[in-house]
Amino acid sequence: MDKIVIDGGVPLHGTLSASGAKNAALPILFATLLAPGEHRIANMPKLVDVSETLSLLGRIGCPSLAGSTTRIDTSRVVFCEAPYDVVRKMRASVLVLGPLLAREGTARVSLPGGCAIGVRPIDQHLKGLEALGCRFELEGGYVNGSTDGLRGAEIHLDVPTVTGTENIVMAAVLADGTSVIHNAAKEPEVADVCRFLTTLGARIEGIGTSTLTIDGVARLSPASRPYRIVPDRIETGTYLCAAATAGGDLEVLETDPTLITAVTEKLTEAGCTVEIGPRSVRVRREGPLHPIEVATAAYPGFPTDMQAQLMTVACMAEGRSVITETIFENRFMHAAELGRMGAHIETQGNVATVHGTGRLMSSPVMASDLRASAALVLAGLAAEGLTEVLRIYHLDRGYEDMVGKLRGVGARIGRVSDEVRDEARLQQALSA
Ligand code: EPZ
After folding, report:
1. Catalytic: 241?
2. Reduced to 3 DSSP states, what percent helix, strand and coil does the chain have, rounded to the nearest 5?
3. Is 0.85 topped by the overall pTM?
């Protein structure tokens, strides 16, 4: 396994480009099952989760050619299962459920189980799919789904679940009749999946709102032109928080600033200078940061996927910040690791109080989940001396070439095997 080493305390300067959004790329790849034939998807991020998804689709019978424009041929389906060994590593594999039921009338998907940040049930996915005419049996940790034909339905979600909304939409587009989904998730990635589906011939109204109306069609077919995935707003926000944390002047290009207003407004409140361009966001931070208060919320509120990164920014502010996590029940693991770097953070239930001092100390720390890993890298950028972040396989799932992108804006950062201890080798990795 690898670790990231950072010689921190160096302000960041320069530009980097955002990649395509992980949380749009994954459902869109599964959605190609709905339209047999060859699809081309552009702006595909180079991530472990994307490779895992392509490998699962390969096992289902759909070969692909990975690249920034990824080609996948969904003409044939030979296997209607998402096995436990795949789902336990990537819970987003549950997104194969809707497409397989719509196309083949059958699907066997391992229950994802919990993960580091919470229980993360799929009851709403099943509730919506049942309303459309699917039947499910739970057996041996698997969901066995079947249907004799999908029919349009009116569905009221108890929770605006992102992947739940996506699973239900991907079935409803091929149902007989009209479906209306109330309390649908409004995240930009859900809207991107819906837009992709319309390029295949799906009929969806209310895209980007909490009420989606889908008129089912008999069949869908691959679009004639490549579909370009929306920029990753969470990756963008992560690098903006890196500049706020380490200081300096950093601009993220190839992004969509309108998707992260909750983040840019919070960074402005914290004392950063934020400049918004048509396809770029620039953050400058020279002086001290002010403490902030934030509660995560469904879109367009402050994203839960940015909570860990903002906690690192709060450590660099002088004063008391309060962060409330309203989406997941256990998403403060990074607080203990930041504590190893000298942060003073009290957590009580879903509220974290950060007593920021404006400083962090370098230390070996351990990542626990994707966004916590990012938060620890940001902390290493600010802490004087050598910080090591272990278990960065979490990071590779959702950030394309983070080391390369941060190097490009002046960070002294490298990646080595986690067995390397020798100081000279570690220093060498910083400028390799
Ligand atoms: C998606 O996960 C994202 N993943 C997550 O990003 C993100 O944190 C999350 O949405 C919230 O924005 C992908 O899109 C692949 P939810 P998802 O269903 O769909 C409860 C990252 O770092 N719930 O919207 O699994 C659930 O327990 C990842 O990129 C039910 O109760 O999240 C949670 O408390 C992490 N029943 C809340 O809803 C259900 O059937 C939101 O979960 C489904 C969800």
Report:
1. no
2. 35, 30, 35
3. yes
